[in-house]
Design a protein that fits this description.
Layout (H helix, E strand, L loop, with lengths): L8 E3 H10 L14 H11 L7 E3 H17 L3 H18 L4
Antiparallel strand pairs: 1-2
Helix pairs in contact: 1-2, 3-4
């Protein structure tokens, strides 16, 4: 179940609060978590002003896709792993099938 099951779009502040209240568990990592500060930074980095004041499901998917493209362009394994964790976390929160 994702955040877009109940609402069609979120303001940036509401989305920030959703990330802040989330458990932070990253799928496919054996129980690793993003801490609150990391989740806040992730929401600010992923959903910048280019998406406007309201983030729709389409904007959310676009942000996840952009991160996936950044992962493909990266050659460093550590950065690639970190981006993959971000993508998996965003997919879990947004309710996007993996």
């Amino acid at each position: 179940m994702g955040i877009f099951d109940k609402k069609q779009s979120f303001s940036r502040q509401e989305l920030k609060n959703v990330f802040r209240r989330d458990s932070g568990v990253i799928p496919k990592t054996g129980g690793r978590k993003f801490f609150e500060a990391q989740r806040t930074k992730l929401s600010q980095d992923s959903f910048s002003r280019k998406y406007g004041s309201e983030i729709s499901k389409q904007d959310y998917r676009r942000a996840v896709r952009d991160l996936g493209m950044a992962k493909r362009k990266t050659t460093d394994r550590r950065q690639r792993r970190e981006i993959e964790r971000r993508v998996n976390y965003l997919k879990r929160v947004g309710g996007i099938k993996q």
